[in-house]
From TrEMBL:
<dbReference type="GO" id="GO:0003677">
    <property type="term" value="F:DNA binding"/>
</dbReference>
<keyword id="KW-0663">Pyridoxal phosphate</keyword>
<protein>
    <submittedName>
        <fullName>DNA-binding transcriptional regulator YhcF (GntR family)</fullName>
    </submittedName>
</protein>
<dbReference type="InterPro" id="IPR051446">
    <property type="entry name" value="HTH_trans_reg/aminotransferase"/>
</dbReference>
<dbReference type="Pfam" id="PF00392">
    <property type="entry name" value="GntR"/>
</dbReference>
<feature type="domain" description="HTH gntR-type">
    <location>
        <begin position="16"/>
        <end position="84"/>
    </location>
</feature>
<keyword id="KW-0805">Transcription regulation</keyword>
<dbReference type="InterPro" id="IPR036388">
    <property type="entry name" value="WH-like_DNA-bd_sf"/>
</dbReference>
<dbReference type="InterPro" id="IPR036390">
    <property type="entry name" value="WH_DNA-bd_sf"/>
</dbReference>
<keyword id="KW-0804">Transcription</keyword>
<keyword id="KW-0238">DNA-binding</keyword>
<dbReference type="InterPro" id="IPR000524">
    <property type="entry name" value="Tscrpt_reg_HTH_GntR"/>
</dbReference>
Length: 125
């Protein structure tokens, strides 16, 4: 079942590329349950037209969502939100716990550890 997604979404003029904004918005909706597991996302062309973006922009967002394990591209059958979508947050939480313990073990302050994360954050590059 295909649904309308990102009905209120607009690409902002911030320094973050449009494909990242689309990816972030869809990922957030999946994690919050606004887009349920098993939902068929709109076609790349359909969502691109809805958002007034190039098809390559939406295709890249979908590709990265697939790499994150949030969706699965099924060719002509479309792009579906995967059952493993909820596990992504658990994996990130586990990685964050590991990082926090490692940073503390290395003698870093919370601020120094946060500075490392900020420096590594993709939109800061």
């Amino acid at each position: 079942m295909t649904m309308t997604i990102l009905a209120d979404f607009t690409v902002s003029s911030e320094d973050i590329p449009p494909y990242r904004q689309v990816r972030r918005a869809i990922a957030q909706d999946i994690r919050e349950g606004t887009i349920a597991v098993g939902t068929k996302l709109p076609t790349v062309r359909s969502l691109a037209a809805q958002l007034n973006l190039a098809t390559n922009t939406v295709a890249r967002a979908y590709k990265e969502l697939e790499e994150l394990g949030l969706v699965e591209g099924r060719g002509r059958a479309g792009t579906i939100v995967t059952p493993g979508a909820g596990r992504t947050s658990a994996k990130i939480a586990s990685n964050a716990t590991w990082f926090a313990r490692s940073a503390e073990g290395a003698g870093l302050s919370l601020q120094a550890a946060l500075d490392l994360v900020r420096a590594a954050w993709p939109s800061n590059k």
